[in-house]
Design goal:
With 430 residues, this protein is α+β, with helices and mostly antiparallel strands. The chain contains 13 helices and 19 strands.
Length: 430
């Protein structure tokens, strides 16, 4: 969410930056609403002052035995005018808030031009994609052949875009999540949290999922109580500090959580709807930081490294790209995608997005700290996937597959699993 005054002061610069992400800012509408809001405030203040003066005059005239009928009539007229202005003020405030909530974050000029993944700029590649002396299977065929994954029974339970993992597959998912949490808490300094998976409309609005993406969210309710299923742990983790002032000495805050995530994934089709790449429910370890805005750029680079560390620990080949301005998420200023190699598709696919939101989310959720002058100021928020369990499992099965249909897992998982090899029939082996 933006400060209307700041956007108006930026003027053409705000229009230019938002245009880079395909958003057309109607500056005249924003200026009109802000002007009406300010005028209503001034008018209401002037009428309240006049009402207070007239009330005092009524009392004084009454004490002197004078006629107060006209004064009382004037007082009633003033109260009616104040009520009308206040009602208009509520309407203008709602219109202004709705407009501001619909305006995406200003993209960082460091983001390349463009409006799709085709315009992303590759930063680096790490690891060598495996070369197989056979035609590699995709993770769906591997998972079903070994009995690690069962998509048919998942569909029976919940419809398409769900999965059941079993045996070594379920153990592998648990091991991956624990490995990621251990890396982030023991090596990277994050504090693990267990958070609610159902949150309020206000909470969803704080991080930018609402109002824009309501059609893409799962929600439920009992009686008049409405709750949304979280699309990522970013939502509850960031909003833990909504409407709070964080002491500067406590910054940076580094938070992590392993949660289910629920997404409609509207618009996904073809290869993305097969297997674990895009599901309605999946597990993910999320990393979130809240920092002084001056430290946000450096923190973004650090957090990309934290997400990369998970893939390095597993020995998976991947690359890092910087997203184009027009392909950056609604709330983000700048985003790096980490893309893991998927052999069956012969390409890299996104497995983690790490974003700097600047003060955009903090303004919406009212998360502040104090500056050197002691006055409250907004923090900067950042978050990233570190990592999604399902997509990591897909990459792991595909990159670690053997010609005989078995899977040889990385050594880093052995302490969590007690085995390193999964035979072609799904049997764990040391």
């Amino acid at each position: 969410m933006h400060d209307a005054r700041a956007l108006i002061e930026m003027g053409a610069e705000a229009v230019r930056r938002l245009a880079r992400r395909g958003y057309s800012l109607d500056l005249s509408e924003l200026e009109s609403l802000q002007s009406r809001r300010n005028q209503n405030i001034r008018s209401a203040d002037e009428l309240r002052a006049e009402s207070k003066r007239v009330a005092s005059e009524v009392q004084q005239t009454a004490k002197q035995g004078g006629d107060i009928s006209k004064l009382k009539e004037h007082a009633r007229e003033l109260k009616d005018q104040i009520r009308d202005i206040e009602a208009g003020q509520v309407q203008v405030e709602e219109q202004l808030r709705d407009l501001l909530l619909s305006i995406p974050n200003l993209p960082d000029d460091a983001a390349p031009d463009g409006d799709s993944e085709d315009f992303a700029v590759e930063i680096r590649r790490v690891g060598t994609p495996p070369a197989f002396p056979f035609e590699p299977k995709d993770h769906v065929d591997l998972g079903e052949a070994t009995g690690l994954l069962d998509f048919a029974r998942a569909t029976k339970l919940s419809g398409p875009r769900f999965a059941v993992s079993r045996g070594a597959g379920a153990a592998l998912e648990r091991a991956l999540a624990t490995l990621f949490l251990d890396l982030h808490t023991r090596r990277h300094g994050y504090v693990e949290h267990a958070v609610p998976f159902l949150v309020t409309r206000k909470t969803m609005t704080g991080t930018g999922q609402l109002p824009k993406f309501e059609e893409d969210l799962f929600k439920t309710g009992v009686a008049d109580r409405e709750l949304f299923l979280i699309p990522t742990a970013e939502v509850p983790l960031t909003n833990l500090y909504a409407d709070e002032i964080i002491p500067p000495a406590e910054l940076p805050l580094a938070l992590t959580a392993h949660t289910p995530c629920f997404r409609s994934e509207a618009g996904s089709y073809g290869r993305d709807t097969r297997g674990l790449i895009r599901q309605h429910q999946f597990a993910k370890v999320e990393i979130v930081q809240m920092v002084d805005p001056a430290d946000a750029d450096a923190t973004l680079e650090t957090m990309v490294g934290h997400a990369e560390a998970c893939l390095k620990e597993l020995g998976l080949a991947y690359r890092v790209v910087k997203l184009a301005a027009g392909d950056t998420g609604f709330s983000a200023q700048l985003t790096y995608d980490i893309e893991v190699w998927i052999p069956s598709q012969n390409t890299y696919r996104e497995i983690s997005s790490v974003s700097n939101f600047g003060t955009f989310q903090a303004r919406r959720a009212n998360i502040r700290t104090r500056g050197e002058d002691g006055k409250p100021k907004l923090v900067a928020t950042l978050n990233g996937s570190g990592l999604p369990v399902g997509r990591t499992l897909a990459a792991l099965l595909e990159q670690c597959q053997q010609q005989d249909g078995s899977i040889v897992l990385p050594e880093s998982l052995v302490p969590y699993l007690g085995f390193r090899r999964i035979s072609a029939d799904g049997t764990p082996e040391a």
